[in-house]
C-alpha cells in the first residue's frame, strides 16, 4: 500500500479520529505525525501487516500448547503461583488438595476437605491444622480464687498499724488513700492504691479502682473497713471459711435506714460485689454529708440487698467502745482491753472501734492472739480426750502417747523392733562381737531409775499389799522415736508373812515408758551450699603415717583421673609433727604429683610443720594451723591418712556440714587386722577342700609346720605365708569378714572454721587448757557444745585401713573405755579368732 500524503500538523494532546463529509478518509493523529489513507487501502494494509504478525504468533502458540500437553499431568490440582525466589527462601508447606465434583443436574460444587497431615519434623512453619495451646494456671482453669481481701479506707497512719497487725493472717490487705493524704511512709508501701475524688464522693473513685484492678474477679469475700476500726482476723477467717460465698450477701451492722454501717465493717460476697461494680453508675448521683454514708447508701442501691448480721450460725459482731456503757467511754482502747476482755461478747467480736492510736491496734491484736491460743488449747484438750476414749477400744490397751501405734506392732517387716535384755548386773546387746556387757555407767542408772518407778507403781496396786520386794528378775527395753524408751520389768516379790522363805515367789510385770522430753521444731531450714571450698587436713606424726599417706595420695590421683572435671575448690593440707626431713620430702613429692594430676579439680596442696615439743592434742594443733593458714570461712575435713574413700564422700561432706548449725562425724568402715583375715581365709579354703575331697588333714600341717602347741603369733605368720597374695592385696570392700562400722571412732569429722573456733573457746572456758591434752579425740568438745548439732551416719564410701590403736592410761575413763572397745571390735570377728585359735591342726614339726 502506498501512502497518499504526509503532512505535518500541530501535535494534539491525544489521538483522535476526524471524518469528512464528502469522502471517506481516516486521519490518525499520533505523536505529531498524521497518516491519511482511504478506507479500502487501509483494510488491505491492516490484513498484510496482520498476516506477518499473526502467523509466527500462531505457530509459536501451537508449539507451546503441544509441549504443554505432552509434559503436563491431566489431574486438576489448583495451585498458587509463586515467585521462584520466594519458593527457594520459604520452606515447602503441603497445600490442601480440593476435589471439585460437578453435578450436571444442579451445577452445585461440592468441596471435599482432605484430612490434615502431620507437619514435617524439619519444618519451622506451623502447620495449618495445628492449634496453639497456651499453658494456664490450674486456679484459672478451675475457677479458684483467693478467699479474702480486706479493703481499708485510709485516712491517717493508723492504716500502717492495721496493715502490720492483720496482714500476716489474711491473704491480702489493700489500702485506698486520697492523693493528698499520702506521705513519705505511705508512699513506700506496695499495697496502696491512690485516688482523686474530683469533687465527688470517695466511693466513686474507689469502685472504679477496684474494677480497673480486677479485684472483684479474684476474691470470694471482700471486707470494707475504715482505718479507725480493728478487725479480728481469726474470727474473720472462721466466717469466710465456713459460709457459702456463692450467694449474694452483705453482712454488717445495720443503721436506722437499713444500710450497713462502714464503721463496723461491711463484708460482701463475690456475687454481691459483682453487682456493686456493675451497677456503680447508680452511685454517681448520691449526695450525703460524708463519704462513709455515701458508700453505705451506694451498696444498698447497687446490690439491692439488705444488711444482715447473722448467716449460717455465725453472728457479725461489732464492738463499739463508746456504746459499752462504761465510765470514760471516750478513753483509749488499749487502756481498757483488760476490762473489756471480761465480756464474752468482746472476745467474740469481729470488729472493734474506734482506734485512736497505733497502740490501740497493737494491744487489740495481742489480746485476740491470746484468745485464739486459748481456743486452740481447749480444742487440743478435747481431741486428746476423744483420742484417749477411742484408745480404750484397742486390743493391746490404750496407747501412749495418744494416737501413737503400740510398740508391739512393727510398721513393716523391715522395721521389726529389737529389744535389749538386761538383768541386775549385765545387759545383752545385739552386737556382732560382744553380746553381754556389764550393767554400768548410764545403763546402770537407767535401769535403777526404772526399777524404782516400777516398784512405786506396784505399791499403788491394792492387790500388792502385804508383799515385800526381793529383787529385779529381768527386763527388756526398746527405743521408739515416736514414743521414747519402753521398758518391760519383771519384779520378784514374796509375802510379808513368809519369814522362812518357803512360799512361792510372786513375779509382777510392769510396763514403764520414758517419754521424749524435748522436741525441737525447725522453723527455718538451714542453708546448704554444695560448692563450698573444702580443706582436707591430713595429720602425719610417724613413719607409718607417711607410708599410709602414699596410698592416700595414690587413691586421690585415681579419683582425679576417673572424674576429670570438678569446678569446686579442694585443698589438701598435710600437717606434720615429729617426722624427719626425708619423710617430709616424700610427702612433698606425693603432693606435687597430686597437684599435677588434679589440675581440673582446682587442687591446692601445702605442708604445715609443727613443733615437736607442743603437748596439746594433735587434732587441735593441726586444725589450729590450718585455720590460721586458710581462714575460718570454709569446711575443714579432718581425715586420717589411712582413709580409703570415693568421690561421693566429698559431696556428702559439703551437704551434711552446715555452718553455725551442724558438724558431720561419719561412722567409718574400719578394716580388721589383715593377718587375721588372711589366716582365716586360708583355713576356710582348706576346710572347703577337705569337704570336697581334694586334700587331707595332714598336708597343711606338714607343709607349713603348724602345730597346736605353737603360739598364736607364730601360727598367724605360717598361715599368712600360705595366703594368696592376690587375695591379700585386693581392695578393701565393705563386708562383714573384712571389717565393721566403728561407732566409737571420732577420728574423721567435718566442721566449718567458724564453728571450730567457737567450740574450742567454749570448751577451754568450761574445762581449761589441760583438758585438751589428755583426750582421745575431739568427741567431748563436740558433744558438750550447746548449739552445734552432731550428725553421725554410716558412711560406706569411707573406709579406714587397719592401724594399731594405743590406749593410754592417762586418758579419761570414758575415753579409755571407748578406745579399748574400739580396738577390740576392729580386731576381728569372734568366728575368725576362734577358727585360728581352736582349729585342730596336728602335723609333724
TrEMBL record:
Subcellular localization, as worded in the UniProt entry: Golgi apparatus, Golgi stack membrane
Membrane topology note: Single-pass type II membrane protein
Top-level EC class as recorded in UniProt: transferase
Residue ranges the record marks as coiled coil: 366-393
This protein's GO CC annotations: Golgi cisterna membrane
Pfam family, one: CHGN
Keywords: Coiled coil, Golgi apparatus, Membrane, Signal-anchor, Transferase, Transmembrane, Transmembrane helix
Matching Gene3D superfamilies: 3.90.550.50
UniProt-listed Enzyme Commission number(s): 2.4.1.-
GO function terms (MF aspect): glucuronosyl-N-acetylgalactosaminyl-proteoglycan 4-beta-N-acetylgalactosaminyltransferase activity
Cross-referenced InterPro entries: Chond_GalNAc, CS_glycosyltransferase
Principal subcellular localisation of the protein: Golgi
Assigned protein family: Belongs to the chondroitin N-acetylgalactosaminyltransferase family.
PANTHER family on file: CHONDROITIN SYNTHASE (PTHR12369), HEXOSYLTRANSFERASE (PTHR12369:SF13)
Protein name: Hexosyltransferase
Source species: Steinernema glaseri
Lineage, opening ranks: Eukaryota, Metazoa, Ecdysozoa, Nematoda, Chromadorea
